[in-house]
Each structure stands twice: as C-alpha cells, then as structure tokens.
Design brief:
Length: 232
C-alpha cells in the first residue's frame, strides 16, 4: 500500500499485490490490546465485499512515521483553530461589532449569529442555542440596537429586562416573608401559592386520572406544607 499526507488528510491507496483495492482515508489510531497501535481507515473493497481497513502499524514502520506527522498536523490545526477563536473572542469582548443575519428557515426564522459570538451572547442571556439551527439573538437586542451591535450594546439592551426580573423576584421574596410573618403572628397557615395538577388516584376503589387543587402553605413554625384536594 502507499500513502499520502495532504494537510490533515492521510490517504491510503492500494498497490498491486495488496489484499484490497481502491483508496480510503485514515480516521483514527487506536491501541489494540492484541495487535498494538492500529490505523483505522474507511472502507475498501476486499474481493466482492466492502470492509473497514485496519492497518497494524508495527508491520509498517514507514507508515507509522507518516501517521505521527499526520497526527501532528491535526494537533497543529486544532491549536490554530483554538487560537483563532480566542482572538475572535477577545475582539468581541473588546468592542468588535457582532453582525446578526436573518435566517429564513423552514421551521424557524430569526436573527442568527455563529460560533464565538453566539456563545458570548448566550452567556449574558442575549441569545439562545436552538438545536440543529444555531444561535438565535434576542429580539430585545435587535429592536434596541439593530442587527449590528457590540457585546456591551447587548448588555445595555437587556438591562431593563433584568431590572424588571430582579424587581419581581424581590417583591415575591417580600410577599413570601410577609406570609410567614403573618402565620407566626396569627398562629394560622397562610397560603403561599395555589395550582391545579393532574394525578392518578383511587376513587371508589378504582384508579383514575383526577384534577387536584394544590396549595403550599406558610406554617406558624416557619415550615411549609402542601395540600392537595381531589376536585373530581
């Protein structure tokens, strides 16, 4: 067999006398407990069948050397990509513009950003990752800053939303504490919240799906208690 390295691609090709025909590319190297290092490749034709090509590197010292160069090229490409992404990350953090593009999709249409920009925006709540689609930018950011904006623009656009959420959380905590204070003062439970949910239960000796009216109570001793009443 013969081989050739082109960037991060290692191609293996058959020569006359080999047990296979055609060519394939290497995908991995594994350490087999029986045969030692094996070069794992794609499928090649062996007779009338297609089989995955596995090469025992101990039998091919020249190929083993080429595999080392191939692996070094892959690692170098990974380092270069990581460094490029880090430079982009630092540029965006330093004020570089993020450009959102309108993605007119079959199932979802929205303003989209990619890679590092999407990750950084998602970290501050200015974008969400949609599986098999990409990063969708918050409409709040687009409406406030337009499709071209900085990371700081996105933070500023979201600040009123954050302030409102913090206010709601503060008011909810104060109301909850007031309920406990009232329960302690009066010696009677105070309702914290109520909701309905579907549960399986036995009524009349038979299992069924019923709607229960549920409540959480602040108790005089500072604990909470949940109750559920079957509404049938």
């Amino acid at each position: 067999m013969k081989w050739k390295i082109d960037g991060t691609t290692l191609t293996i090709a058959a020569e006359p006398g080999d047990s296979f025909t055609g060519n394939t590319v290497a995908t991995d190297v594994i350490d087999d407990p029986t045969h030692g290092p094996l070069l794992i490749c794609g499928e090649v034709r062996v007779g009338r069948k297609w089989r995955q090509l596995k090469v025992r590197l101990a039998d091919k010292p020249d190929l083993a050397t080429a595999v080392e160069r191939w692996q070094e090229a892959i690692e170098a490409e990974k380092r270069a990509e990581a460094e490029s992404l880090e430079r982009e990350r630092e540029a965006i953090r330093g004020g570089a513009k993020i450009v959102a593009k309108w993605h007119d999709g079959e199932y979802l249409s929205d303003w989209e950003v990619f890679w590092v920009a999407g990750e950084l925006l998602a970290e501050i709540g200015a974008a969400r990752y949609v599986h098999a689609w990409g990063y969708a930018v918050s409409r709040v950011v687009i409406e406030a800053a337009g499709p071209e904006f900085t990371l700081e623009d996105a933070r500023e656009a979201l600040q009123p939303q954050r302030d409102a959420a913090a206010k709601r959380a503060r008011e909810a905590a104060e109301a909850r504490q007031a309920a406990f204070n009232q329960a302690a003062r009066t010696g009677e439970p105070v309702c914290l919240r109520s909701w309905c949910e579907s549960r399986r239960a036995i009524e009349g000796g038979e299992w069924g799906e019923y709607t229960f009216a549920c409540s959480e109570w602040a108790m005089p001793d500072g604990t909470t208690k949940e109750t559920a009443v079957n509404t049938y």
